[in-house]
Amino acid sequence: MIGGGGQWLIEAIYKNYSDFWYADWKVGNQDDPERKIWSVLYETVAKKEQIRNLQFLLNASKEALEKKLTEIEAFARENDLEFWADVFKNALKALHSEKPNADSFYFDLIMLKNYSLLAQQLIFGAAAAWIFGAMGSWNDMSFQEKDKNEKYEKLTEELYDAVIIALIAGINTY
User: What is the mean pLDDT of residues 116-142?
Assistant: First the structure.
């Protein structure tokens, strides 16, 4: 998820400790016909640390993400932001699809056989809802009206939290 979201680490869990890995993303072949332009190098950044193993309830995570996507889609439509409303609608579609990766840019994000349908729905729904980044992203906007801007900021922050939890909940089922 290039372009926002802070530093993400992978926790490799062993019997009595965890190692943490960081991904360093770089642009590779920009002319790749399959649009796979990124190369990534993983580095261990912490060894033999306390086990964290974050776990979240799948159904609760799905409900929270669905609620936030529904609210933010309505906000986008109320403010004539149809492009963004459709992004949120597509994320909702993935969240309820029997093949949640079917329309995803990130179709090969995980090995499907390793995850339940519910976990896949969370992962691909959250990936489709990733609207956080740099210039031109959803979180690059502001509104003149104070109340509208405050609602936008609140919904955006809440969606971010729901997306992160959905990703962790889905990924950590494997």
Answer: 91
